[in-house]
Design brief:
Elements lengths: L4 H20 L3 H8 L5 E6 L10 H11 L3 E5 H9 L4 H11 L2 E6 L9 H20 L4 E4 L12 H18 L2 E5 L10 H11 L5 E5 H6 L15 E6 L26 H8 L6 E5 L4 H4 L3 H16 L3
Parallel strand pairs: 1-2, 1-8, 2-3, 4-5, 5-6, 6-7, 7-8
Length: 314
């Protein structure tokens, strides 16, 4: 049966109305998912920030969680002190899970890079033991710093690369990823270009660098160099700030301050580092004596608020 012209118009109106109603019935959750902006960063607390309060391993974790952090970086010596005083990896793992925090990285100082062979062998044994412990509490990474080679003479970067490959192979066996760390005050691995060379030259898919706003300034790297650090090369970035009127030669660890309270080009850095496909972990790492004199929870909350303010809209 044919439909008259007025009938056709009415049919089209009805179809249009029905379609509109269907669109209105799209689940709210779907619409919210479509509009939700990608996450470029995760916020973490490096326990250096509240280390001076001497809370102990478990209370540091609780403080971070109470402050609103879901990610943390622990210090191996504090963790080991907890174990030596009767704690266990099983207990620690349960507490970590109950708090809902992720141990993203661990700060240790094994001298894997040292020139002296005996020192290096001892350090690798130490590193193996540390990785085994960290794996039991679900830690994902460990810092591979230039400790043991901070003074002259310079070590050839190819030699450092070979030693880093050894550490990477150890990490593969334990499930812990070692991050080759830049220290601006060191003679070795003091620049972005140094650690980036070691990571890329290793040819290892797990190779990654650990950078730090303070060390970029201290070591004389140009912040623009961050643009050469590809998304596969960085997972954790230590965020902090530093005051004006102090030179790289004079600045020291206790001079670190909250993000946004100094002159570091942090927003410029974060714009380069952001990666919606794999959020970069921004970890607050400061060693400020005036913060150590304050309540640890207040310090952690203040730090998180300032980190979020710096990263807002990037």
């Amino acid at each position: 049966m044919s439909i008259s012209l007025p009938g056709r118009r009415q049919a089209l109106k009805t179809i249009g109305l029905t379609a509109g109603v269907s669109l209105l019935k799209v689940p709210a959750s779907s619409a919210a998912t479509e509009k939700k902006p990608p996450v470029s960063f995760k916020f973490s607390l490096n326990m250096s920030t509240i280390r001076g309060q001497k809370l102990g391993f478990i209370e540091e974790l609780r403080t971070a969680a109470k402050a609103g952090f879901s990610s943390v970086e622990i210090w191996i010596d504090t963790f080991q002190a907890y174990l030596q005083n009767g704690g266990s990896t099983a207990e620690a793992r349960k507490i970590i899970d109950d708090l809902g925090v992720t141990v993203e990285n661990a700060i240790g100082f094994a001298k894997w890079i040292a020139e002296d062979e005996l020192t290096r062998k001892t350090a690798l044994k130490q590193l193996q033991e540390e990785m085994d412990l960290l794996a039991k509490i679900g830690c994902k990474r460990i810092a591979a710093s230039p400790m043991g080679a901070t003074a002259l003479p310079l070590i050839d970067l190819n030699t450092i690369t070979e030693r880093y490959i050894t550490v990477l192979q150890m990490g593969r066996q334990t499930g812990i990823k070692p991050l080759v760390e830049m220290w601006g005050g060191s003679e070795n691995l003091k620049k972005i270009s140094h650690v980036l060379y070691v990571a890329t030259e290793s040819g290892h898919k797990e190779a990654s660098v650990l950078l730090d706003a303070f060390h970029i300034f201290k070591g004389g790297s140009d912040p623009e160099s961050l643009s050469f650090v590809g998304e596969h090369a960085i997972e954790v970035f230590h965020i902090n700030d530093y005051p004006a009127n102090i030179t790289p030669a004079k600045i020291s660890e206790p001079d670190r301050i909250y993000p946004g309270d100094g002159i570091a080009p942090l927003r410029q850095m974060l714009k380069v580092l952001k990666n919606p496909n794999k959020p970069v972990i921004l970890s607050l790492e400061v060693f400020n004596e005036s913060y150590y004199a304050q309540d640890a929870l207040l310090v952690a909350k203040t730090g998180l608020a300032k980190m979020k303010a710096i990263a807002a809209g990037i």
